Model the fold of this input.
Amino acid sequence: MTTDLEHQAAKLFSAKDLVYVRRIAENELDDLPDEALQTINNRESLFVLANGDGQQLAIVEGREAAFAAARAHEMRPVSVH
Done:
């Protein structure tokens, strides 16, 4: 039996307009092509935007820029730690 709270949580986490924002892990940088990192000033300021399935949608330099990019594409950014 699913409670109302569980139903609400399921709706929240499966919302099509949600995008999850998190700092990119150091080991994920190894998977990026060298050309992609040439214009990056600070590798520690890279953030991933991902959908509810964990699929990476974008990598953005700066947390504020990541949130702005999500909103520019009519998505609701949520911070993930």
Remarks:
- The radius of gyration is 15 Å.
